[in-house]
Amino acid sequence: MIQEPIANLLDAMGAEALPCIHNEPLDRHTTFRIGGPACVFCKPRTVVELARTLELCHSFGVRTYLLGNGSNTLFADEGYDGAVICLTDLKTRSTAQTLPDGKTRLTAGAGTLLVSVCNRALELGLTGLEFAFGIPGTVGGAVYMNAGAYGGEMKDVLSKVTFLDENLKLQTLPVKELALGYRTSIFEQRNWCILEAEFVLEPGNREEIQAHMQDFMARRREKQPLDMPSAGSTFKRPAGCFAGQLIEQCGLRGFSVGGAAVSCKHCGFVVNTGGATCADVVELTDKIREIVKEKTGHVLEREIRVVR
Ligand SMILES: Cc1cc2nc3c(=O)[nH]c(=O)nc-3n(C[C@H](O)[C@H](O)[C@H](O)COP(=O)(O)OP(=O)(O)OC[C@H]3O[C@@H](n4cnc5c(N)ncnc54)[C@H](O)[C@@H]3O)c2cc1C
For burial by CB atoms within 10 Å, which of 37, 99, 263, 276 has the most? Predict the structure, then answer.
């Protein structure tokens, strides 16, 4: 039976023709290919639709989860008993403006895939975003996580972020006020919806930028299990070492629970070998943590976001 607040929300959204679906399977929307249904799944196309969707959810007391490309998200097998608001259809304009010092201010909407922003930077001959080329997330997800790779992170190239705060008020904050740290940001503690990011990039050599992007992608293909569903690195890097190395040292290569397994190609990744459930991944990662702690003394912290 549909809960009353959900039914009321669906009716109100239907009446205003806001894009939403009831009982949408979430495994279709995450790179792990795991997750039960969302009671309500919304895909706003404009900021106005997004703000109205959030407003209606708040007014009916329905909890919300903001979803980008789902490449760092693990939804529960039971699904999500609120509204998942996916931002990948959000149409926003990307702008590029040359500054007096020769740098360029590039803006991108939250639902834009990082690869598109990287390609735009390449097209314009701008350097700085090469590290992000193979990260399969959206701008919003990457800002929220302060995504990084190969020595670079969002923090290095971001200048400001525009978002809707908990009162749905439009706000912009400069990067220094976003508490960006290793795979964390202020957005982890606040109920804010990222709308747009502004990057400041330096002029560079197009061939060199492209060569760096291709090199990073080749390294990923060589080392990471890109042919299997996953959410990237399962654990954060503990101080002074790599989670994958610790897991390997403990003899856990290929270790599995149900359909979830430690990748044989890269021990830092848990992969879905087929039919893995959220419960499998959680049990497997708990066991890994326990064994690694016992054998090495290191405490691993999950990087993937488990949403129940
Ligand atoms: C094969 C593979 C390789 C990866 N490699 C890397 C890597 O090298 N470096 C790295 O850092 N990560 C990596 N990741 C993880 C992931 O791609 C990044 O964390 C990415 O930034 C997540 O973006 P997303 O849009 O998919 O986020 P989601 O998984 O959709 O969301 C992640 C978090 O961000 C929040 N969020 C999303 N959009 C918004 C928004 N607009 N406003 C507010 N909150 C929002 C969500 O609520 C959630 O808490 C990898 C993942 C895979 C599958």
Answer: 276
What gap in Å lies between CA 197 and CA 25, rounded to an integer? 29
Map out the domains of the chain with their CATH numbers: 4-86 (3.30.43.10), 95-212 (3.30.465.10), 225-307 (3.90.78.10)
Q: Is 120 a catalytic residue?
A: no
Pairing of strands 104-109, 96-98: antiparallel
The verdict on whether 303 is a catalytic residue reads yes
86 lines ligand 1 (CB under 6 A): no
Question: What order do you get walking across the sheet with 256-257 strand by strand?
Answer: 230-233, 269-272, 260-262, 256-257
Nearest CA to ligand 1 atom 33: 141
- 136 within ligand 1 shell (Cβ under 6 A): yes
pTM: 0.97
Strands 230-233 and 269-272 turn out to be antiparallel
Burial 69-104 (b: 16+ CB within 10 A, else e): bbbbbbbbbebbbbbbbbbbebebeeebeeeeeebb
* Token pair for 97: 């403006």
- pLDDT tens string, the chain, 308 residues long: the values are 788 999 999 999 999 999 999 999 999 999 999 999 999 999 999 999 999 999 999 999 999 999 999 999 999 999 999 999 999 999 888 999 999 999 999 999 999 999 999 999 999 999 999 999 999 999 999 999 999 999 999 999 999 999 999 999 999 999 999 999 999 999 999 989 999 999 999 999 999 999 999 999 999 999 999 999 999 999 999 999 999 999 999 999 999 999 999 999 999 999 999 999 999 999 999 999 999 999 999 999 999 999 99
